[in-house]
Amino acid sequence: MEKDEILSILNAWNFWKQNVNIGIERNYYQQKITSLINESAIDVVIETGIRRAGKSFIAKQTAKKLIKKGVPKNSVLVINLEDERLINRNYLTLLEIYKVYKENINPKGKSYIVIDEAQEVDGWEKFVRGLVEKGEAKFMITGSSSKLLDSEYATLLSGRHVVVYVHPLNFMEYLDFTKGKGDIEEYVEMGGFPAIVLSKSKMELVKSYFDTIVLKDVISRFKIQNQDELVRLAKFYITSIGSKITFNSISKFLKLPVKTVYNFSIYLEKAYLIFFVRRFSFSIKAQDNSPKKVYTIDNSFSSVLGVNPIKARGRLLENAVASTLYLISRHASEFNFYYWYENNKEVDFVIKDHKKYRLIQVAYEIKNESTRERELSALLECANRLNVDILEVVTANYENEELIGGYTIKYVKAEDWISNILKEYGF
Predict the structure, then answer these.
(1) Which helix (H) or strand (E) holds 135?
(2) N or C: which terminal CB in the chain sees fewer CB atoms within 10 Å?
(3) How far is Cα 148 from Cα 157, in angstroms, rounded to an integer?
(4) Among candidates 225, 219, 217, 176, which has minimal Cα distance to 52?
């Protein structure tokens, strides 16, 4: 590419001569990444998470925050590797872009470089490592999980990096994006992908996201031959949220080899489309040998691609709680969550934070006494085993508190419970 053409493209991405669209600010990530990038021991911050969660906008928001804090505009370089004008995308392209930038924009100073959608270029990590070792730059890397997976980072970047997980909008961010006009029912039904929250064509976008994630982040990355089988399994999972599964049972139901089910499940989890929750046990072996419960990162997939949002609203509410807990677990190292199942009684979530336990049952509504007794019976038995005296029932719109046999039962509306736990963990 000619120098003038590269400069023209760079000018379109960067803050040097114009205001760049940074979208609606997501302060939690912006502040966290800014703090990390300013640490002397950290050279690379990598944003990972499901495609379309907002990683690119967060990177630009962070770049703008650095400029506001005194970093010269010409010291910030944004490289968007999804730009269709970059016909050839390879390691040499990055070197060429950087050379033009240094010669014409920032010939002497240290740089803060954003590489957006890094998975588009083989060898991006070699480019990053080279400049880090020379002490010339710090980096923010974004990318879909098709090639940028946590387990790969250590070998690529030799340790001077941190990974920040980016989730679709949590409920509080969702309220910010909708300027307070949204409500928990809509969030539970349509989830928190930023563009979908702001769009009038929600269903079309959800289907497009699903197809792109499956195609680019699973089929292309893992070179899947049996594509129809993968799509069947993915749709099975996102319409079975909250269900206990084993790979053997799915193998029989979908008539797929157990090994295929296992491999495809791992791939879908690595693409952040789904996640599994283990049964609580003090025995690791028992956890590993028990069925897992399956959830999806964002409720929109389940609502649009299979379940009836009215008939399945209890499962959708449970998935929204699970997704919130998953987000927290990716940012709080001692925070883990499980389901509990003993004597045909089940508690939806057992949170273990350090040595403290917390029990949560999700019930869309307390219709009658038999429903109440079923939910409380499991909670009380689990509480007795784990020595927990405050128990929580998350509902759509019912709130109350009662004392049973020395245990306090708190019924909390979902919008309050989700907001409170997010605040508790700094979101």
Answers:
(1) none
(2) N
(3) 12
(4) 217
> Residue 332, Cβ neighbours under 10 Å: how many?
14
Residue with tokens 């400069």: 7
Residue where one domain finishes, among candidates 114, 130, 165: 165
Q: Answer whether 242's CB lies under 8 Å from 347's CB.
A: no
pLDDT digits (tens, 9 = 90+) for 62-78: 999 999 999 999 999 99
Q: How far apart are CA 266 and CA 104, in angstroms?
A: 46
Q: How many residues would you count in the chain?
A: 427
**Rounded Cα gap, residues 47 and 246, in angstroms:** 31
- Rounded CA gap, 76 and 90, in Å? 21
CB-count exposure of residue 194 (10 Å: 0-12, 13-18, 19+): buried
In this prediction, residue 1 carries a pLDDT of 83
Domain that holds residue 153: 3-165
Domain count of the fold of the chain: 2
Determine the residue type at 202. K
Beta pairing, strands 292-296 & 244-245: antiparallel
pLDDT in tens, 118-167: 877 888 888 999 999 999 999 999 987 545 555 555 566 766 889 899 99
For the whole prediction, is pTM greater than 0.85?
yes
Q: In terms of DSSP H, where are the helices of 158-246? A: 171-177, 184-190, 194-198, 202-212, 221-222, 227-238
Q: Which amino acid is at 331?
A: H
Boundary (domain end) residue, out of 148, 165, 182 = 165
> How far apart (Å, rounded) are the C-alpha atoms in residues 65 and 27?
10
